[in-house]
Write a structure and sequence with these properties.
This protein is an alpha/beta fold. It folds into three domains: 31-101, no CATH class; 107-281 and 389-450, no CATH class; 292-371, no CATH class. 48% of the residues lie in helices and 15% in strands. It has helices at residues 11-35, 90-95, 104-116, 120-131, 137-163, 241-254, 271-280, 290-305, 310-325, 328-342, 354-367, 374-380, 387-401, 416-427, 432-440, 445-449; strands at residues 54-67, 70-81, 87-88, 177-188, 199-210, 232-237, 262-267, 285-288. Strands 6-5-4-7-8 form a five-stranded mixed β-sheet. It has a three-stranded antiparallel β-sheet with strand order 1-2-3, sandwiched between helices. A hairpin with a 5-residue loop joins strand 2 (70-81) and strand 3 (87-88). The protein binds zinc ion.
């Protein structure tokens, strides 16, 4: 028997043993590799920031680095640039090792766990169980927020460039149809406002390309098989609608919004979104999310005839058909008739009262009228729902709400904004998550070329 130590082990124990040995070998190899690197203590170290001369303060400074093959200890020179104050270890810079914190591939795992798990506690558990990375929930939070801050900073630079008139490169293939869709959600933040509320609005936008799928004869929305989203990409923020508008414009331009043969904007009929669309996507055809429109009809039917009564169900069905057939005059007329029957709302009447609901929805259907030409939309083969954005709002929002209530929605504080940037990067389907990490691991060009 060649392996007396392991003769009584089962397969799981064998795998664990071999894995552990493999990791020890990998660590030993890495240590040798790093110890032999000529860039540990270069003869003429240069400052990457100002190309000045770097003054080495310590030639053998010890660093422990958390990597995917465990903790690696190594020695490297460490210096400061007297001209610009930049402090750096040339070896770290040359290898693309972050100046603090774990290595890039570990940061990728931490960030991935943070955006996919429901809370930082669960993310920490997943990291421990799957990758042997032992971090507290708080450490997971701090690391992923710091990464999100980098992602948000890259995005902010793009937006700034665009606002100054910089050109955004579109895709190589012109999409037949580009769809912009946006929605807002509510996120609980730690900040207590003066009125005691601590809710802020997050905004999520999704852009996708699609091939139109004409289906003019579809009898109802359930049977309608319009264009399906192909590649979806996202932008999400806690910043005001105006800022979000620029952000989503950049995203849309990247996806070929300018060149696309058809441009659509799908959303619910909220006032904030209406202004948003007119300001930032005026060229796009507006489509009011079918499901929101129908929800309003349902609200009207209950307001007029009570919850789940035969009359209410019959009225709702009739209105839904009218809406589907594009008979907006019929729909608005019918709501108006019920509104007159139950009476106009009193001043300061409760916003959930039947009178208020019916009165308000006359406005809703009148103001969003242009977005409800459903017969045309299905003849063109366009999508009629904003589910892609709403799904992301729900998913990102759950991610934010599911954690502790430490989100600080604004400015300098770390939290929601950083996590939203990271979530949007991760959820985008054009491969940008992998691309981001590939670039992140790259050393600066100057060291690389040597
Ligand atoms: Zn310098």
């Amino acid at each position: 028997m060649r392996y007396p130590m392991t003769k009584d082990m089962n397969m799981a124990e064998l795998v664990a043993r071999v894995e552990e040995s493999g990791q020890r070998i990998a660590q030993a190899l890495m240590k040798i590799r790093l110890a032999e690197d000529p860039r540990i203590d270069p003869a003429e170290p240069m400052c990457r920031q100002c190309q000045g001369k770097l003054r080495i303060q310590e030639h053998e400074q010890r660093r422990m680095l958390s990597t995917a093959i465990g903790e690696i200890e190594y020695l490297r020179a460490y210096g400061v640039c007297d001209r610009c104050g930049h402090t750096v270890a040339p070896l770290d810079e040359a290898l693309g090792i972050p100046s603090f914190g774990p290595s890039v591939e570990v940061m990728q795992k931490i960030s991935h766990a943070a955006v996919t798990a429901r809370s930082f506690e669960l993310a920490a558990e997943v990291l421990k169980e799957h990758s042997g990375i032992g971090l507290s929930a708080k450490q997971v939070r701090l690391n992923s927020e710091a990464e999100g801050e980098r992602v948000a900073a890259v995005r902010a630079r793009e937006v700034e460039l665009f606002r100054k008139g910089g050109k955004i490169e579109g895709p190589s293939a012109v999409p037949a149809l580009i769809v912009v869709t946006a929605d807002g959600g509510r996120v609980q933040t730690r900040q207590e406002d003066d009125d005691g509320g601590c809710w802020k609005e997050d905004k999520v936008g999704a852009i996708y390309d699609a091939n139109p799928h004409k289906d003019p004869a579809a009898r109802d929305a359930e049977k309608y098989d319009g264009a399906k989203a192909r590649t979806k990409t996202f932008a999400a923020t806690m910043q005001p609608w105006e800022e979000f508008g620029w952000m989503l414009c950049v995203e849309a331009y990247k996806r070929g919004y300018v060149e696309a043969k058809e441009k659509l904007f799908i959303s619910d009929g909220a006032q904030s979104l209406r202004t948003f669309r007119q300001d930032h996507f005026p060229e796009a055809t507006f489509i009011l999310d079918w499901y929101h429109a129908v929800e309003h009809l349902s609200g009207c039917s209950k307001a007029a005839f009570g919850e789940a009564t035969d009359e209410s169900v019959a009225w709702y069905k009739r209105m839904k058909t009218k809406l589907w057939m594009g008979d907006l005059d019929g729909v608005i007329g019918a709501i108006d008739k019920e509104s007159n029957r139950v009476g106009k709302p009193q001043p300061k009447e409760n916003s959930g009262s039947p009178r208020v609901i019916l009165h308000r929805d006359i406005g809703y259907f009148s103001e969003n009228r242009e977005g409800m030409d459903y017969p045309r939309f299905r003849a063109e083969g366009w999508p009629i729902g904003s589910g892609v954005a709403e799904g992301a709002v729900k998913q990102f929002g759950m991610r934010l709400k599911g954690s502790e209530k430490f989100w600080n929605g604004f400015g300098f504080g770390l939290g929601a904004e950083e996590m939203l940037a990271l979530c949007a990067l991760h959820r985008s389907e054009d491969g940008r998550w992998q691309e981001y990490w590939r670039k992140r691991a790259q050393p600066s060009a100057r060291h690389n070329s040597r």
